[in-house]
Amino acid sequence: xxxxxxxxxxxxxxxxxxxxxxxxxxxxxxxxxxxxxxxxxxxxxxxxxxxxxxxxxxxxxxxxxxxxxxxxxxxxxxxxxxxxxxxxxxxxxxxxxxxxxxxxxxx
Length: 107
Description:
- The chain has helices spanning 2-27, 36-39, 49-74, 88-92.
- The protein is mainly alpha-helical.
- The protein has a domain at 47-73.
- The termini are far apart.
């Protein structure tokens, strides 16, 4: 019985090592290199107006969000019921706010 288990173990190890070798051999191929001349226009031509419109359309939500955050930090109410925390630092510089002096978790 021990011989049968030993042969099964040996054959399974041999089979798995053979399978592993064939997998590595099938990987082949070198590193795929991209040609930088295909990405940019060789004459330095600017993108078309359609490309610029598409890029501006994709940037628009981020610009709106940035404007909303600036307005919120200045003290404007963005959504009904939301009020920003007014600190001395936000009055001087709306882009940088310092944490409140009172710890609201423990106090």
